[in-house]
């Protein structure tokens, strides 16, 4: 089994500067860095930045406070895929590998991912408890300013990096075999279906929560990756 240190080196080496090329021209050249590594010394500030960015998109009642995120980081520092324009956080994806028992709760209509994920339910990668992982897609955010910019496909670039990371984890013996998501908006429902091939399990009309679920595999993740690459090139 490949060590956590080896995986982190692989993922950290995948930090890059993007020059997005369309079929006919450069749509935009920008110092947009995508990273899956958060240095310990930067963790507290990064979690604060994530909370601030999330509040630009979600209602405050749907935003995890930075102290909770920091506890999650200490349990598994590799839960986030961050997009930065120079030093400014402009988007992120947070996906959490969970114990099987905790994951089953994410499929229930009354599930609340702000209150129902215990810190000790989060699995570190390569924890020695088995090669199959269940993952809850907790949050996928892009700064509204960048959402409105044509030729700036930040969410697809984050998704591409996320899927590449999952394939690396799979090669190391940590295979994500099922995943879930809780969507609180029409856009969230669309992303769950189109980006992750998730199926709606249940809708809680009391809080408008939509619970999505799907099976996955390394082969499926490769298919999703090729799909997003095609969209980036179109």
From TrEMBL:
Highest taxon, organism lineage: Eukaryota
Gene3D superfamilies: 3.40.630.30
Protein name: Uncharacterized protein
Organism: Rotaria socialis
């Amino acid at each position: 089994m490949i060590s956590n240190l080896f995986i982190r080196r692989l993922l950290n080496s995948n930090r890059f500067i993007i020059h997005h090329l369309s079929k006919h021209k450069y749509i935009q050249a920008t110092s947009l860095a995508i990273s899956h590594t958060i240095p310990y010394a930067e963790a507290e500030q990064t979690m604060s930045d994530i909370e601030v960015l999330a509040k630009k998109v979600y209602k405050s009642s749907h935003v995890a406070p930075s102290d909770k995120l920091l506890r999650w980081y200490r349990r598994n520092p590799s839960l986030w895929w961050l997009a930065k324009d120079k030093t400014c956080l402009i988007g992120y994806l947070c996906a959490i590998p969970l114990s099987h028992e905790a994951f089953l709760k994410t499929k229930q209509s009354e599930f609340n991912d702000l209150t129902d994920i215990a810190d000790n339910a989060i699995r570190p990668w390569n924890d020695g408890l088995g090669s199959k992982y269940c993952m809850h897609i907790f949050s996928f955010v892009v700064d509204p300013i960048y959402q409105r910019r044509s030729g700036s496909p930040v969410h697809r670039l984050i998704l591409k990096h996320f899927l590449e990371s999952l394939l690396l984890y799979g090669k190391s013996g940590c295979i994500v075999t099922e995943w879930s998501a809780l969507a609180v908006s029409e856009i969230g429902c669309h992303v769950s279906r189109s980006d992750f091939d998730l199926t709606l399990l249940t809708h809680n009309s009391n809080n408008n929560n939509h619970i999505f679920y799907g099976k996955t595999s390394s082969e499926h993740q490769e298919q999703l990756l090729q799909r997003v690459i095609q969209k980036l090139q179109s």
